[in-house]
Amino acid sequence: MRVTVLAGGFGGSKFISGVRSAIGPDDEISVIANTADDLWIFGVRVSPDLDTIMYTLGGGIDPERGWGRTDETWNAKDELAAYGEPQAWFGLGDRDLATHLVRTARLRDGRTLSEVTAELCERWQPGVRLLPMTDDEVETHIVTTVDGREEVIHFQEFWIKHRAAVPVLGVELHGIEAASPTPEVLAAIDEADVVLLAPSNPIVSIGPIVAVPGMRDALAAARAPIVGVSPIIGGAAVRGMADQLLDGLGIETSASAVARHLGARVDGGLLDGWLVDTQDAREVEPIESARIAARSVPLFMNDAATTQQLAVDAIAFATELRARR
Amino acid sequence: MRVTVLAGGFGGSKFISGVRSAIGPDDEISVIANTADDLWIFGVRVSPDLDTIMYTLGGGIDPERGWGRTDETWNAKDELAAYGEPQAWFGLGDRDLATHLVRTARLRDGRTLSEVTAELCERWQPGVRLLPMTDDEVETHIVTTVDGREEVIHFQEFWIKHRAAVPVLGVELHGIEAASPTPEVLAAIDEADVVLLAPSNPIVSIGPIVAVPGMRDALAAARAPIVGVSPIIGGAAVRGMADQLLDGLGIETSASAVARHLGARVDGGLLDGWLVDTQDAREVEPIESARIAARSVPLFMNDAATTQQLAVDAIAFATELRARR
Known about the structure:
2 copies of one chain form a homodimer.
Chain A: E1 2-7, H1 10-22, E2 28-33, E3 39-41, E4 44-46, H2 48-58, H3 75-82, H4 94-108, H5 113-124, E5 129-132, E6 139-146, E7 149-154, H6 155-161, E8 170-174, H7 183-190, E9 194-197, H8 206-211, H9 215-221, E10 226-229, E11 232-233, E12 236-237, H10 242-248, H11 255-262, E13 273-276, H12 284-289, E14 293-296, H13 304-324
Parallel strand pairs in A: 1-2, 1-9, 2-5, 9-10, 10-13, 13-14
Antiparallel strand pairs in A: 3-4, 6-7, 6-8, 11-12
């Protein structure tokens, strides 16, 4: 079986680890990762979601923080602050920096992000094919007001520096028009038996992936069923600040509203199926009336067992939908 | 009084600290620093000599090592090695990296090396005007044989990775033809009352500075006397591996041979005067017969007092030569 997962960073990487534990030895996982969180900072290229997935699956993640490296030190960052750098808010750990330096060196040498990601994964052995959604530079920017003035800031600045505590007036995907999916991404969609959307932020993780020109067409043409896992449980984001983003775009923070936002595949949207948490069982009916198959299962990924079970449920639901088609 | 010092890294920064302690409160020091040791590595720009001078004069240098930062950690470097990076031999300390990151960010923004150096010095307050010899990229490469094959390698690779233990067949200054001195450098030479050559490597520190097109003309036209301090004492380099470089270029490792290599200013060379160590007093006469004024004084910079005294001697000698002209 070939499973292809669309994913952002934190929730995505947990979910993927569940899928990895749920499949058999002959099965394959391809991950199409959001790269719109990426940024140039201090002249180096940082790919937060790729790294979170790579470190999580490769055993290098700091489990408390959920991003960056174990046994991290922050001397470079402290020194950037000592230089009075306004961008020293960014979490550049010393160990993590090595990953950014290798990536930057390769990109400066003319290699693609896909190539350098594959190279970095030779060390981490994540057990999945980790594919950037595109080799082109796409960056999510948030239209907001800072100190009363309208500003357009990089998503990382919104997320880390402002902790999502400034208003969201809009989301812009800079560079998206000129971007294209990589051949590996298109093949991973085309050849998949199952396509899963990880419980990642629908606006800034799944959103940019499916906004890459050509991606929606590829997903529409996929022979595999497409099943998403709701990142909203009980009317709140499981982690982080997805609700501010949803609010800002006029989308209700609920499992069913996010499903409708992504849309039914039969109506030109993305989803064949949508998994909601058991506490959101009453949302199954409104989702199904929007022509998206829905089921309620436990969505909290509290430990390895619940995470694996969620992956098993998602794959089983997709397999069932495939049989129905 | 305006003192302008041409300098490389380690010996240069010690000597400059001596000059700083030797001058009065109304005197000014400009340092024209070698930038041909600079390199791009892992996508960041490193300027070893500028940083050694800046850290030494600003109190941030590791005094044992003679380069890099105090309280340094090496986690990024260790991780680069874990990625199997062949360039992980380069001494990228975590704290030091912050300096390279700020520099790289500014250069990528289109700022000049002179501008970013001035900005970095706002933090370190070295007490001198620290001037890169040029804003253009010049890189010293060493022609050598590695495992029997002729190779041209960056000076840093020769110096750090091979510890100068490979043969020197030649020295190439890549980019030198297209380089020019900055306006600040030319003004520092033109306006100087005294020009001093620090006891830095004559081939790879002083050599590249005076090889920048226009630099020799500027020095020839300077109204200030030009006095150099021999980096060779008793037939050996005070520190480091200058002798291998001199050997490779067919220059005897002696105070007088280096003086002749730099040349008498009256004959189109660089030097009005040359200070040799007291143990090389017998070299004064051959140097003077090459039309370079010479004097023997203690050259070892063992502590703050001897370092200051050397600077006092150099300035006094230059002042005397100025009176003679």
